[in-house]
Design brief:
The complex is a heterodimer of chains A (1003) and B (195). Chain A contains 24 helices and 53 strands. By secondary structure, chain A is an alpha+beta fold. Among the domains of chain A are: 172-299 and 433-506, FAD/NAD(P)-binding domain; 511-588, BFD-like [2Fe-2S]-binding domain (Arc Repressor Mutant, subunit A), CATH 1.10.10.1100; 622-672 and 767-860, Probable tRNA modification gtpase trme, domain 1 (Gyrase A, domain 2), CATH 3.30.1360; 675-763, Aminomethyltransferase beta-barrel domains (Alpha-Beta Plaits); 906-1002, Elongation Factor Tu (Ef-tu), domain 3, CATH 2.40.30. The termini of chain A are far apart. Chain B has 2 domains: 27-33 and 114-194, Probable tRNA modification gtpase trme, domain 1 (Gyrase A, domain 2, 2-Layer Sandwich), CATH 3.30.1360; 36-110, Heterotetrameric sarcosine oxidase (Alpha-Beta Plaits). Chain B is built from 4 helices and 11 strands; from the N terminus they run ββαβββαββαβββαβ. In chain B, β8 and β9 form a beta hairpin. Classes of the chains: A alpha+beta (1003), B alpha+beta (195). Chains A and B meet through β9, β41 and α21 of A and β6 and α4 of B.
């Protein structure tokens, strides 16, 4: 192929600006193109024939199509973090400074040493990987082992482009949109549909894959209502966008069709410029919910398979026509058209009109229509009827073709009629409707014997096909079916449709039915799937080896996989398989298309979420924690201080220091993250009595109570304290991580199980900031700053709740202890959280108060034997954790029935204990409790749950679950973790290691 | 007598007024301080009495459907069946409503500290919101004065459309910075100022 730029004039180069030159780089060399060019058209205009190398054999590949169905011309775009491989050159809009490179070739795409792969071509036939790389892993099976070594090298030699390893610097946006009607495709059918809907007042979204709306009209020679088709389309688009109820999205591919008429479309917002502007997204994923949809996605031309058909220079006929007409880029100096239908003849005529020499038209049919003959005469091409191209010749690119007699009924090739020099062969094997979106929704296609193509079938959702997409070929049919589809769709969307005004078409009217010829078989190598180097013989091999189902065929040969998903190859492959099986094509079946329609950047799918898949929740004192050296720790969505590390201090050193300070004096910890639920109503006490396993009905006003919440199946669900603020108002606290699920649990029971209860619940987690003041000096600290509360044992006893003021801030104080020391939880409005924290710190200065983090908090509760998340893990019951005394037998509650099942009372259940390291080693979390050695540990008898170093006991300790643990205090075991090579000698003890009588927290 | 300190918003350092140089911003973001925000929940069968109690306290009744009722500084937003979010300038709204409603009619929960109000205004306000929130912002589906309870990913948000091009967004306080980060990033595409 030796492409060149045509003499640009009216009707030649309709999509480009001949006065505006842009410079681009391909494979390191600078070229010039024109604004409006695609990368493919610019490469053609610059005479670049070989753009890529094939996947397996590294055969030279050129440009095959002019759209997103391109299988061959894959390039890598841009540099650095913006590097993007496997982009179809046919879809890339040229811009000044564009950098593109070929891929899968070394040292260059013109001279690729890896083309040596072609030599053992037969060995790399279908099933090569399955036959070669899969085998039993047996000692002595050297063949398989050898191939394992080779696999890496071969995989490196085969493949597509390489992705960037640097972070992508661009932004990807998202948009949610709703409409009465989504129209996919802005060709004649799409515009007719959109116009009717727009005039009816419906909200319309019209999506067009290309930058220029109009679909096939942009290069059609026909007239509509007296206007040239492309001018009519441009006018219609202008009219449509003037409607407030219409949104036209160009450069937007509707990729996916989901349930409930939900679509995902990707808009290439800034792919046509060097870099997005400040704040601009590179691509935007549209989530479109449409009441109904019209698919006017047209049809994709398919090739005819013949020997040598993968040579650069062999292209689809309509693509050659579009390059010549729209871009003024002639793919060759001497073009031959090879067709089995009339549209190839029209393409020949249109190509010739641009000034390109069409040397011949080769048609497999013995006779053609008058319209085709007329077009052939206009093109001044030599005509070969009842003939086929039986070979494409040329060293690396097409230089000549061999034309032979051909019988379309028998498929027999006759004598050679001519060998003709040509550098571009424009092939048309008929048209396949682009029903990919309907297929995604499971609509089974139906075979149309006349068109030799599958049609979309009956809708399973609210969509309507129009134009070539549903087999209604030709411009007049597109306009009529577009309006009809919109009318039907509007009816579904409950929008009264206006009257359609179908324009008059003056243009070609042809019969699009092709001769049923998919392959010219001569026994020589012919390619079905250009992207994956799948030959017609590979399909026949699959048949011989029993892979006759289309699903097996696809996977065995890889036909229809990768970036093009077989848009130009699936039907041809299917036809070859049908011939091999001697079955009609529809009986062989067809695969189902899956989303997306074309390859989609992961960034477009992820949107703005990359970097933070979940939002952070911050407490009112967050900034103080960070400013004061806290290492922050993710606890669910919350960010919490792990410890306040002093210079040179490790986390372990810091938490030990903090925990010691609390036991000896006083500490402050931010507990704002605890779940808080406001429970109100005349039946609130009764409600709590039903959701907790222990009694709440008689909890006095001004008191708090620790409660256990069970699931319906009797397992522990969550715990926390609930404070009675007045007769009908409670403040429930939950674990930090459990707040959401407790809220759902309560809402479910109120709405579904006990709708008769007058109870309202509301999340007030974010309403209240919370600070726990813990340690023997906590009372002094509180006393120094609080007003209106007697903090003596009598005035504020253990589990008492009071309201007071601290430096002008109204606070709720509850005397609760998680640490086992005397402690208070002080709550205030979140907006005053920092003020409260500051006040307590200031009041505590005289008592050497320290802030402490999550690690110290955990250490203190482990020493005390208080359970938390690791023990409330969904597999434990109150009895397992020694909390049987909190299970009421005087009332019913959620989980009560199933808590009685015998399995929960078996002797072998794991029970809560504590273990102490007796050899000074650190106990690992998740370690198993065993009797044996590291090498031979024996059966696991339990496992550790929460571990730490205990400053109080001066050794490593852990809470653990142990079989019949309650009866095994004093026993010696090992906490082992073979994968971490740890085997720690431990002694089983009571979990209540500090102040088991509770005198410290009560006194 | 110690004065009550000012409430500190998590957006205090972020929502500082600024107007970027260069292109004309198409939206303005701001934080609107909320003096009192209270949730009222009526029991089944007590709705009419609760409406009257609300009216006695605030001077206006809840509106029908999804619409907010506005009177002076009072805004009553529907938040579910028999449930309302009521905003006012007075700081003792919760106490007054609780006294007027009582446990026999419904529940009254103070949420003044639990929400941060982010306001967005400008011709591209709906566009910015639609880029992250999956509801229909077309005025025909979401008229001026209406309220929607929805979420942006994991962040719950109550949206009050105060004008064709203006919305008040009530966001959970602990998520406020995350929400601000999202909305300001989303607004970069159209350009924004902070008012």
């Amino acid at each position: 192929m030796s492409g060149f730029r045509l003499n640009l004039r009216d009707g030649v180069g309709t999509a480009i600006d001949s006065a505006s030159t842009v410079t681009f780089i391909f494979d390191g060399k600078s070229y010039e193109g024109l604004r409006g060019d695609s990368l493919a058209s610019a490469l053609i205009a610059n005479g670049i024939s070989i753009v890529a190398r094939s996947f397996k054999y590294h055969r030279p590949r050129g440009i095959f199509t002019a759209g997103s169905e391109e299988p061959s011309a894959l390039v890598t775009l841009r540099k650095g973090g913006r590097t993007e491989p496997n982009i179809r050159a046919t879809e890339v809009e040229l811009y000044d400074g564009l950098i593109a490179s070929s891929q899968n070739a070394w040292p260059s795409v013109d001279f690729d040493l890896m083309a040596v792969n072609q030599l053992p071509g037969k060995a790399f036939s279908a099933g090569f990987y399955y036959k070669t790389f899969m085998g039993p892993k047996m000692a002595g099976n050297r063949t398989t082992q050898f191939w394992w070594l080779c696999e890496q090298l071969i995989r490196r030699a085969a493949g597509l482009g390489k992705g960037a390893e640097l972070p992508d610097p661009d932004r990807y946006g998202r948009m949610n949109a709703f409409c009465d009607l989504l129209v996919v495709g802005s060709g004649a059918a799409g515009l007719a549909a959109a116009e009717l809907a727009a005039n009816s007042g419906a909200s319309v979204i019209l999506c067009e894959e290309r930058a220029l709306a109009g679909g096939a009209l942009t290069s059609a020679p026909d007239f509509i209502d007296g206007q040239l088709a492309r001018d009519w389309a441009a006018d219609k688009c202008r009219q449509l966008v003037s409607h407030a109820n219409v949104r036209l999205l160009t450069r937007t591919t509707v990729q996916s069709y989901f349930d409930d008429n939900t679509f995902m479309a990707v808009e290439r917002v800034a792919d046509h410029v060097p870099t997005p502007a400040k704040g601009q997204v590179r691509q935007r994923a549209w989530n479109i919910r449409a009441k109904s949809a019209v698919f006017a996605t047209g049809a994709l031309e398919r090739p005819i398979v013949f020997p040598g058909n993968d040579k650069p220079g062999v292209m689809l006929a309509d693509a050659v026509r579009r390059y010549a007409v729209e871009y003024g880029a002639a793919p060759g100096k001497q073009v031959v058209v090879f067709t089995n239908n009339d549209s190839g003849w029209l393409a020949a005529r249109d190509i010739a009109r641009t000034g390109v020499v069409v040397a011949a038209i080769v048609d497999v049919r013995p006779d053609v229509s008058d319209v085709a003959r007329g077009a052939g005469e206009d093109s001044r091409a030599k005509v070969f009827l009842g003939s086929a191209v039986t070979r494409a010749k040329g060293f690396r690119t097409l230089s000549a073709i061999e034309i032979s007699a051909y019988n379309e009924l028998t498929g027999k090739v006759g004598d050679t009629r001519d060998t003709m020099g040509c550098d571009c062969l424009a092939v048309s094997g008929g048209w396949s409707p682009a029903f990919h979106l309907t297929s995604q929704q499971g609509t089974k296609p139906v075979w149309d014997a006349e068109l030799q193509a599958f049609l979309p079938g009956n809708p399973t959702q609210k969509w309507h096909g129009a134009g070539a997409m549903c087999g209604e070929m030709g411009l007049q049919a597109a306009l009529e079916t577009g309006a009809a589809a919109a009318e039907a769709a509007l009816s579904e969307a409950a929008v009264p449709a206006g009257v359609a005004d179908i324009p008059v078409v003056d243009g070609d009217r042809i019969d699009f039915a092709p001769a049923p010829v998919f392959e010219i078989y001569t026994g020589k190598k012919s390619f079905v799937d250009l992207q994956h180097d799948v030959t017609a013989d590979d399909v026949r091999l699959a048949h011989r080896e029993g892979f006759v189902s289309v699903e097996h065929l696809k996977r065995y040969t890889t036909m229809g996989m990768a970036t093009d998903q077989g848009k130009t190859s699936n039907l041809t492959g299917l036809a070859i398989m049908a011939r091999a099986r001697d079955l009609p094509i529809p009986e062989v079946g067809t695969t189902r298309f899956r989303p997306p329609y074309t390859p989609t950047a992961l960034g477009a799918i992820a949107g703005e979420l990359y970097g933070h898949l979940k939002p952070d929740r911050l407490t009112p004192m967050h900034d103080w924690h960070v400013a004061n050296g806290a290492s922050m720790y993710a606890n669910g969505l919350w960010s919490r201080p792990e410890s306040y590390n002093r210079p040179g201090e490790s986390v372990e050193q810091a938490y030990i220091r903090e925990a010691r300070a609390v036991r000896a004096g006083v500490g402050l910890v931010d507990v704002s993250t605890l779940g808080k639920i406001d429970v109100q109503g005349p039946d609130a006490a009764e409600f709590l009595n039903r959701v907790y396993s222990n009694g709440f009905a008689k909890l006095p006003v001004g008191k708090a109570r620790y409660g256990l919440m069970l699931r319906e199946d009797g397992f522990l669900f969550d715990d926390g304290t609930t404070w009675r603020l007045d007769e009908h108002r409670f403040l429930m606290t939950t674990t930090t991580a459990g707040a959401g699920r407790v809220m759902e649990h309560l809402e479910y029971h109120l709405d579904v199980v006990w709708p008769d209860l007058k109870v309202a619940i509301a999340s007030v987690t974010d309403e209240w900031a919370g600070v726990a003041v813990a340690g023997p000096k906590s009372r002094e600290v509180l006393k120094a700053c609080i007003k209106g509360v007697d903090v003596s044992d009598k005035g504020l006893p253990f589990m008492g709740v009071r309201e007071g003021m601290i430096n002008g801030v109204r606070v709720l104080v509850a005397r609760l202890s998680f640490s086992g020391e005397r402690a208070y939880e002080v709550y205030c409005g979140a907006g005053w959280g920092q003020a409260l924290w500051d006040s307590l710190l200031k009041a505590g200065e005289t008592f050497d108060v320290v802030p402490y983090g999550l690690e110290a908090l955990s250490t203190l509760r482990i020493e005390k034997g208080h359970v938390a998340g690791p023990e409330l893990n969904g597999r434990t019951t109150p009895l397992d954790l020694g909390l049987g005394g909190m299970v009421s037998n005087k009332k019913n509650f959620v989980g009560a029935a199933l808590l009685k099942r015998s399995a929960f009372h078996e002797a072998g259940r794991l029970q809560l204990v504590a273990i102490k390291s007796t050899d000074g080693q650190k106990i690992v979390g998740g370690g198993h409790l065993v009797k044996g050695s590291l090498e031979n540990p024996g059966e696991s008898e339990g496992h550790t749950t929460s571990t730490c170093f205990s400053p109080e006991l001066n050794c490593y300790i852990s809470l653990a679950m142990l079989k019949q643990g309650t009866a095994r205090h004093g026993e010696r075991l090992f906490a082992t973790s073979p994968i971490r090579n740890r085997h720690v000698a431990v002694e089983v003890v009571s979990p209540h290691m500090v102040d088991p009588e509770g005198g410290r927290m009560r006194g | 007598m110690v004065n009550t300190p000012d409430k500190v918003s998590p957006l205090a350092d972020l929502a500082m007024p600024n107007r970027p140089a260069g292109r004309q911003p198409q939206v303005e973001l701001s934080e609107r301080l909320c003096d009192s925000l209270v949730q009222v929940q009526a029991w089944p069968g007590t709705m009419a009495k609760v409406h009257k109690a609300i009216s006695d306290v605030t001077g206006t009744r809840p509106a029908k459907g999804h619409a907010a009722a506005l009177k002076g500084p009072v805004c009553i937003m529907p938040a579910g069946p028999g449930r309302y979010l009521i905003e006012d300038e007075t700081e003792n709204l919760e106490i007054r409503l609780r006294a007027a409603i009582g446990a026999h009619l419904g529940a009254v929960t103070g949420l003044t500290h639990g929400r941060v109000v982010v306001a967005i205004r400008g011709e591209k306000a709906a566009w910015v919101l639609a880029s992250g929130i999956a509801i229909n912002f077309d005025p025909s589906a979401f008229p001026v004065g209406d309220v929607r309870l929805t979420h942006h990913h994991d962040i719950g948000v109550t949206i009050h459309r105060t004008a064709e091009d203006a919305f008040d967004l009530y966001v959970f306080t602990s998520f406020a910075r995350g929400f601000w980060h999202w909305i300001s990033t989303a607004a970069e595409e159209v350009g924004y100022s902070v008012g």
